[in-house]
Amino acid sequence: MAALFHGLGPERAGTLPGRPGDPVLSAPAVRHHLPGVEAVLALAGEERTRALARIGDRPGDEDPRQLLDGPLRVWREAAFAGLGVFSSRIRL
């Protein structure tokens, strides 16, 4: 999550609903917030290139594209299926 937030930058990341990394949202909340989440995560062109480069600068072996695209895919699938969203950070 830190790499994704680093890639997005503080202003963009700060507009995502829920506490960073720990959203618990009902199905209606997912549908309500989806347009804003898409605005934050559906990056294109140079903006996407910069975000992917910043994510890649962070330590770890995660695929920057998966870190950027995965959360939006989950949000869209949840909204389509009428489900809520829950995620949690795990610190080791």
Q: Give the terminus-to-terminus CA distance.
A: 13 Å
Shape: globular
Topology, number of strands = 2
- Structural domain count: 1
Helix content: 55-70%
The major beta sheet can be summarized as: 2 strands, antiparallel
Secondary-structure element series = HHEHHHE
DSSP strand content: under 5%
Low-confidence stretches: none
Content-based structural category: mainly alpha
**Strand order in the sheet with the most strands:** 1-2
Mean pLDDT: 86
Radius of gyration: 13 Å
Number of helices: 5
Describe the model.
The chain has a two-stranded antiparallel ribbon with strand order 1-2. The longest helix is centred in the last third of the chain and has 18 residues, at 64-81. Helix content is 62%, strand content 4%. The protein is globular and about 35 Å long. The chain has helices at residues 2-8, 10-13, 27-41, 45-57, 64-81; strands at residues 24-25, 85-86. It is mainly alpha-helical and 92 residues long. The chain has five helices and two strands, in the order H-H-E-H-H-H-E. The protein has one domain (2-86).
Concise synopsis of the structure shown:
The chain has 92 residues and is mostly helical. The chain has helices at residues 2-8, 10-13, 27-41, 45-57, 64-81; strands at 24-25, 85-86.
